């Protein structure tokens, strides 16, 4: 993904490099999965590999939609307050503004933003489907405050299962290898 406002975006815009087309990108992704798995580094997340038991705890925290603190310019975080509300935290993006705010206010962050239940469920779905361990549907229920079937339509899950992109087992949604490559489209379909 090329994010606007990054040096990567600028270099791509200048024509310094080209992104492979979808077919070539998919083939490279599959080759990466095979090579790393064969060497004892299976994917535990769509773009992260590790020996079993050596996965990044930091990464797993946010893919499991846990609380994390973002510190520094442009850093983001998610915190669950004692009353059960979840808020987003965000530091000022520009380092000089962030530092000015730290000096003036003791912190460089924007005001906390409360995250409504529907958005929490959507974020938990987006993050959790990245994981090889799958997404417990109970997490969707905990974030939305409703039965998961009211947030994620069972008929959409069934359609994706029939196509071989998802599996629903033991209360968890698992992306297939083909599903991981199409995760953005799957998430749009499930949330639409």
Name its key features.
about 190 residues, alpha+beta, 3-stranded antiparallel sheet, globular
Mind sketching the topology for me?
Layout: H1 7-14, H2 22-38, E1 43-45, E2 48-49, H3 57-63, E3 76-80, E4 86-90, H4 95-105, E5 113-115, H5 117-128, E6 135-136, H6 137-144, H7 154-162, E7 166-169, E8 172-175, H8 177-181, H9 183-191
Antiparallel strand pairs: 1-2, 3-4, 4-5, 6-8, 7-8
Helix pairs in contact: 5-6
How would you portray this structure in words?
The protein is an alpha+beta fold and about 190 residues long. A hairpin with a 2-residue loop joins strand 7 and strand 8 (about 170-175). The strands form 3 sheets. A 3-stranded antiparallel β-sheet has the order 3-4-5. A 3-stranded antiparallel β-sheet has the order 6-8-7. The chain has a two-stranded antiparallel sheet with strand order 1-2. The protein contains 9 helices and 8 strands. The chain has helices at about 5-15, 20-40, 55-65, 95-105, 115-130, 135-145, 155-160, 175-180, 185-190; strands at about 45, 50, 75-80, 85-90, 115, 135, 165-170, 170-175. The two termini are about 20 Å apart. About 45% of the residues lie in helices and about 15% in strands.
């Amino acid at each position: 993904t090329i994010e606007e406002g990054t040096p990567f975006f600028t270099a791509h815009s200048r024509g310094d490099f080209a992104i492979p087309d979808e077919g070539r990108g998919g083939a490279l992704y599959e080759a990466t999965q095979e090579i790393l798995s064969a060497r004892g580094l299976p994917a535990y997340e769509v773009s992260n590999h590790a020996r079993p038991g050596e996965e990044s705890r930091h990464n797993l925290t946010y893919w499991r939609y846990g609380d994390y603190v973002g510190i520094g310019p442009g850093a983001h975080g998610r915190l669950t307050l004692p009353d059960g509300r979840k808020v987003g935290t965000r530091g000022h993006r520009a380092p000089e503004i962030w530092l000015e705010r730290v000096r003036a206010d003791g912190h460089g962050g924007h005001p906390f933003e409360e995250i409504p239940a529907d958005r929490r469920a959507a974020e938990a779905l987006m993050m959790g489907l990245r994981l090889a361990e799958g997404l417990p549907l109970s997490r969707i229920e905990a974030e939305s405050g409703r039965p998961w079937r009211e947030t994620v339509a069972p008929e959409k899950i069934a359609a994706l299962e029939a196509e071989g992109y998802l599996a629903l087992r033991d209360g968890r949604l698992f992306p297939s290898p083909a599903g991981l490559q199409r995760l953005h489209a799957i998430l749009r379909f499930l949330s639409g």
